[in-house]
Design the sequence.
């Protein structure tokens, strides 16, 4: 028996998973930041914004209207941009510079994906 899948639905879940992985990587990154006042405060904001990317995407997928969907996608895009900001402010140990660069790239890619989704909803 052949199982029929909805490609659009598969993409939704792939992006949810990608957002979750991003937030988990951010959590690990923040745990490894040097413990000083700026990093503690910036790390808190980074964890919040990175988690919010995925949470708002999940809420977008449960939206009650097209307008609600677009608003949640805009918030996800905004939170991805905010994550970039906090990543730039945090001061990692030298051995985590590559991870910071990779996380910045992922935040940028997520922001672009959400921008493309917004364009398609117009």
Sequence:
């Amino acid at each position: 028996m052949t199982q029929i899948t909805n490609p659009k639905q598969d993409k939704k879940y792939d992006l949810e998973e990608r957002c979750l992985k991003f937030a988990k990587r951010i959590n690990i990154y923040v745990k490894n930041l040097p413990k000083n006042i700026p990093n503690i405060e910036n790390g808190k904001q980074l964890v919040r914004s990175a988690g919010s990317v995925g949470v708002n995407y999940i809420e977008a997928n449960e939206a009650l209207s097209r307008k609600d969907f677009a608003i949640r996608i805009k918030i996800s895009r905004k939170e991805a941009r905010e994550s970039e900001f906090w990543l730039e402010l945090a001061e990692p140990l030298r051995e985590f510079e590559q991870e910071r660069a990779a996380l910045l790239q992922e935040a940028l890619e997520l922001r672009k994906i959400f921008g493309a989704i917004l364009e398609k909803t117009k």
Notes: Residues 7-31 form the longest helix (25 residues). The CA atoms of residues 67 and 121 lie 9 Å apart. Helices lie at 7-31, 37-61, 66-89, 97-121.
